[in-house]
Design brief:
CATH superfamily of the largest domain: paralog of FGE (formylglycine-generating enzyme)
Helix content: 25-40%
Low-confidence stretches: 432-437
Strand order of the largest sheet: 10-9-8-11
Mean pLDDT: 93
CATH topology of the largest domain: paralog of FGE (formylglycine-generating enzyme)
CATH architecture of the largest domain: Alpha-Beta Complex
Largest sheet: 4 strands, mixed
Radius of gyration: 22 Å
Number of helices: 9
Number of domains: 2
Number of strands: 11
Strand content: 5-15%
Distance between the termini: 60 Å
CATH class of the largest domain: Alpha Beta
Order of helices and strands: HHHHHEEEEHHEEEHHEEEE
Amino acid sequence: MSHPALSYRPQFDDRSACLDRFNSVRAQTLELTDGLSAEDMQIQTMPDVSPAKWHLAHVTWFFETFLAKRFLKGYQEFDRGYNYLFNSYYEQVGKQWARPHRGLLSRPLLCDILDYRSHVEAAISDLTDAASDTDWLQIAPLLELGQQHERQHQELMLTDIKHVLSQSPEPYAPFAGSLAVAANPTETAYLAMAGGVVEIGASQADFVFDNELPRHKRWQEDFEIAARPVTNAEFAEFIADGGYEEPRLWLSDGWAWVQENAVRCPLYWRQDGEGWLEYTLHGLGKLQPGLPVCHVSAYEAAAYAEWRGMRLPTETELELLARSHPAEGVLLGDRKRYHPGALESGNSPQGVFGDVWEWSSSGYEPYPGYHPPDGAVGEYNGKFMSGQQVLRGGSCATERNHIRATYRNFFPAASRWQFSGIRLAKRTRPASSLKSA
């Protein structure tokens, strides 16, 4: 059975353009490593983080496994051992090196990985030229999937290296430039959104992942949603008011997580006397009050919303906002910035796409009628539809051509090494404030 997410589209007829897009994505990945040493790219600081060197190899393994080996006659595998080392979770392809142990692989060397990338890129170029028209009908959608997969790993590589570099008492900044001074805007406005029977999910698009399908109907009550994400200054008020010490604000699992991990602030905040510093990919500096709070878990997002007498929006509400108010914040590489941008006062929507991923209150589950693609690529999304929370909108580490209103990101509720933030929605009926007296 063919799958809509992997179907052939007219733009694939121009093979030269397809190859140009492939080469552009591959070059952009390497550009993100320009400020890193081989030593930087070797380290793994926690199981969720993968070394940058592993990311460079894994995205290459994807093209080799699903395209070069399958379709290019006479293709010579670069190294048979790489299928074990750089397969992430595709059980149908073979066994995998344990994810928490990726940082233990000093070999292959970084130079070997770069040679591997060149070897597979040459194979994809040959395949694009030599494939029969019949094979190209299968190759082109897989080539597009591989590029979108690499876009995801560009983002993961940035967030992973940020976690790695942050561990130093004087953390290194891989990107030049400093953050703009950003004053805290006035209290956000709320946008009134009409409900009713709405359609959610993807239909026809240049590319969608299988978890965005199928488009389907849902009932949605009228709702009000914040025009912008929550700022650093607003979240600092939650901390100052004892938000991390008040169990009434927290989901049960969240309160246990806070206690077990002694969490008292967002991931990259550091106490500096009576104020705060924040580590970004541009260095350690004074916390900017008007930037979006980021690197918070779904537990922290829900507790903050409870403290404000608000709630987190559902993924349906966030998709409806993105469709009707497609306002952009900072996306990957905008003005060589690798951190969310300043927020402003006013009623205009801000950061609907970009700046920070926004936690929803929705669990990650299949849409009605969902089915994964056939074969190993069917393991891409569907098997993770348990114990995850949906995020929407994209972040400053998301490439502009990779994001859309139907895009569904997902992570466990405790995750916060991604650029994850908060957008609030109003409750449907008044609720008593849970702020400290």
